[in-house]
Amino acid sequence: MDTWYIRTEHMDVGYDGVPLIRDIEIGVRRGEILTLIGPNGSGKSTILKSMICQLKLLAGMVVLDGRPMAAMGEGEIARKMAIVMTERLRAELMTGEDVVATGRYPYTGRLGILTKADKAIVQEAIALVHGEAFAQRPFHQISDGQRQRLLLARAVCQEPEVIVLDEPTSFLDVKHKLELLEILKGLVRERNVAVLMSLHELDLAQKISDRVVCVANNAVDRCGTPEEIFTNEYIEALYGMEKGSYNALFGSLEMARVPGEPRVFVIGGAGSGIPVYRALQRRGVPFAAGVLAENDVDYGVARALAVETVSVPAFTPVGEAAMDRVRALISTCAHVVCCLDGFGTTNEGNRILRDEAAARGKLLPLDRLSDLWTGGEAP
Amino acid sequence: MDRRVRLWIGFLGLLVALLGLIVWNVNAGSVHVSSGEILSILLGRGGDNDVIVRSIRLPRILAAALLGGALALSGFLLQTFFANPIAGPFILGISSGAKLVLSLTLIGFLSRGVAVGSIALILASFVGAMLSMSFVLLISSKVKRMSLLIISGVMIGYICSAVTDFVITFADDANIINLHHWSLGSFSGITWSNVGVMAAVILPALVAAFLLSKPISAYQLGEVYAQNMGVNVRAFRAALILLSSVLSAAVTAFAGPISFVGVAVPHLVRSIFKTAKPLVMIPACFLGGAVFCLLCDLIARTAFAPTELSISSVTALFGAPVVILVMLRRQKENL
């Protein structure tokens, strides 16, 4: 069934007649967010620019609302599709509201004078992005985040059925990134628009997208739901990550582990270990970690950063086999750090390991962790 | 200040200045004409200086107003086209290109003893303007930096001026004086029929530009956005080029190359009205250009009377500082 609002058919894109990516077949339905991800220079922007007719297609076509875009007039396209691009919008002597109002262009008359109804739509769009506070200020004086929100309001004013955004969250801080994407999600839910965008932030792409298209090595590498795309192995391969790793569960990145013989063993769990792992990694101290249940929040980070992570299956007590492995590791480590204060029933093994380390004089209190890299001359 | 109030005050101020300068211009000169006498001449009751006012000063004033408006408007259109606040017909070498082809044509015709009509003059200078324009366009497709574009334009202007000077050197003695005078820029020697032709060219161009207000406002945001808003960018760009070339060609055909009006006036108008909206800018630039040129012509005629200054020297004196000011302000805004 053809429910795609905008889709490409055997589209080749590139510059100056030289194809960069061939045979692209992607599509977005209304009420859905499709996100392009991929390394820098992979061609995400090129695909978007081609789909908004800014670049000439080298082959194939783009179908918008059931008709080839090449056969549609500029005005008709403008009423169906709005854009928020990375190109700076020149807005000399314009207030934010003036910029938003330009979205009404496809609907105004010969001289472009706004009617009362147009003005109401402009105000509504400004309210939608919570921009009332800065809409009256000169556009070039407001912050990047505010500007981006007004540009989205401008796109909304155009009453489009599909919005194309090229890296809309670049240059925004975390708060504004989230706000912008929330507004976008709201638009999709309430106005049933289709959203096609490229994002750099994998964690956000994973959370907001209904479907994800991966662009790499001059090809559309994979296309699917976030669950299908965001696996540790695939993302690491997509970006050719050689240093560090990607944690699909959290959508987070970890630095590369410090290789070598572990000098410290960290007993952690329930999130207590993560700050210690990271501190050791920063200071270049190789370490081992355990004993962690595989459903422990520390587990993923330990796997990424520790030379070795001793674990037990989820929801099972720390068993003898794991404890023996830890004892072997501790015998080669100079220190043991225990991040836990209390121990539950399944965690009894960790308490025993800590006490054994204390008896051997290897237990380093948490507040003296810095001795490991200052040589014990703590103030 | 409320935008609407500013709009009214701005337009009213420009109109008052225009009327005032027209009267002053009729008044002033080697022969002083009193206001009462002007009125009676205009009403057809005649006067001692009827001929001076009717066939010398009035056509010259109208020409200065029309051509000044055309220059300022042409500058505004070029600034929009190149997204460059110091673009203008003179700076980009378009006026000089028009001047070159025009002097070639004039000398070609005159040496065969053929008189040249107003329309042929405009056509020749339009061809020259388009030639320079195509060079500028070629360069602008290769370089994106706005300073480079301006430098190329200035260089094209120098080349055209140099060639014009060669041509004039080899022209008949009798024509040299006139050509030389004209090639520096002047509003003198304009006849009523000249005024008629320039009005027939410039006023429709003004109306056409005004009707393009909407796509111009979209284009001001940037090409990408203009296209997404439904502007046929290719056709629109062609229209802008055509209009600005016609306007600067008309000016060059009758008054020679006049510098800096195209840059200075749109900038001054923008700072008076605090807007860049073409609906305001197009009529305001036209009025502002008329006022600016009337003032400059008044100074050119009367400052060192009976010696008349070339109009370009006066416009440059007022216009060039504005260009420097614009560049400094840009610099500050970018920081």
Describe the structure.
The complex is a heterodimer of chains A (379) and B (335). Chain A has 379 residues and is of the alpha/beta class. Chain A has helices at residues 44-51, 74-80, 96-101, 116-128, 144-157, 174-191, 202-208, 226-229, 232-238, 273-283, 297-305, 320-332, 348-359, 371-374; strands at 4-15, 18-24, 27-29, 33-37, 59-64, 67-68, 81-84, 162-166, 194-198, 211-216, 219-224, 245-247, 252-254, 264-267, 287-293, 308-312, 335-338, 363-364. In chain A, strands 7-8-9-4-10-11 form a 6-stranded mixed β-sheet, with helices on both faces. In chain A, strands 1, 2, 3, 5 and 6 form a 5-stranded antiparallel β-sheet that branches. Chain A has a 5-stranded parallel β-sheet with strand order 16-15-14-17-18, with helices on both faces. In chain A, α4 (116-128) crosses α5 (144-157) and α12 (320-332) packs parallel to α13. Chain A starts with a strand and ends in a 5-residue tail after the last helix. The model of chain A has no long low-confidence stretch (mean pLDDT 85). Chain B has 335 residues and is mainly alpha-helical. Chain B has one domain: ABC transporter involved in vitamin B12 uptake, BtuC (Orthogonal Bundle). Chain B contains 14 helices and no strands. Chain B is globular. The A-B interface holds A 52-54, 73-79, 81-83, 85, 87-94, 99, 102-103, 105-106, 108, 110-113, 140, 158 and B 83, 211, 213-214, 217-218, 220-222, 224-225, 227-232, 270, 274-276, 279, 333.
